[in-house]
Design brief:
homotetramer, 101 residues, alpha+beta, four-stranded antiparallel sheet, 43% helix
């Protein structure tokens, strides 16, 4: 089962700046052989369910190891059985409707 | 690693009523030996990370098997290393502050 | 337009304990004449869109006034035009499917 | 009060393809004088709280007018009082940490 997942990790107890922790998660995702797509409110990851969710777990472990005592994470994720669709397909599908007259 | 997770599964392509699918997920959670706490915008589950996340995957599989071609899910989840905390602890902690004068 | 909204406010830069801020938001909601339904991962509020969203804004203002320099909030919200539905209706609708044989 | 908001609108009861509705929301945002940043799991909008939240309401109205009887929306939003920060600043801040040796 393929999944497109949007990950937003918020470490608590480490002050207001969280970019160091987000950067560490980008590395975790890349090291797992997946391609993170960073945006202002999260990172999109796609691939096999087990592989993607294992990366989410690893991100939590790494952020705790970096010193964050508490993590509050929001995830949006989608699966579909009717057809294959990539994260890029989703964006293109909307953009195509925007250029149509 | 223990996790408190809030699960909100939205099946697409099956009309506007989704309660049948949510009820099926409640059964999936219970059958896994976990205790779902249903609220108006999701279900709270807590326990070992791998066990809880396996249940989320199983919910997606079951909702697809029931005929939903697409699922859009929102998850909030928290882990902490500073102390143990249950979902009930979280609610009580807020309620205690409300009764304080 | 009526809305059912699930509010999860996470103040950053104030340490790991956030219940004091959540409790303050409960009071903001109550003072606005709305009924908060607290659960482990948020608070459900329902009512007229403008009234409910004004309360969300007031919560941000109050939590900042209490000293939180940064707030990260997750909201789930639903509107429907096909029929009226309360937060309690949503829960009951799932529970009814669970007791059906 | 400035806000950075991530909007993910999911219309229900209109089948599995939702890009037409998302495209309509992009136009609503642009017509309000704001700049949508579309990604695979939502759209980032930033600006004055009242202006941004008015756009979210207008999106719901438009998607209902297009025929969707029910909408399930997920929003992430952030405010801060310690300093000004744009959506682009957030992305750059993470990227800077990734290029540091």
């Amino acid at each position: 089962m393929n999944v497109i997942l949007d990950l937003c990790i918020v470490p608590l107890g480490v002050g207001v700046s969280v970019s160091l922790y987000i950067a560490a998660c980008q590395r975790v995702i890349t090291q797992a052989g997946l391609t993170p797509r960073l945006h202002a409110y999260g990172t999109t990851i796609e691939g096999d369910w087990d592989k993607v969710l294992a990366v989410v777990k690893r991100c939590h472990e790494v952020v705790h190891e970096m010193g964050a005592p508490r993590i509050s994470t929001t995830i949006k994720l989608g699966t579909r059985t009717d057809r294959e669709q990539t994260a890029e397909d989703k964006v293109r599908s909307v953009e195509a409707k925007l250029t149509d007259v």
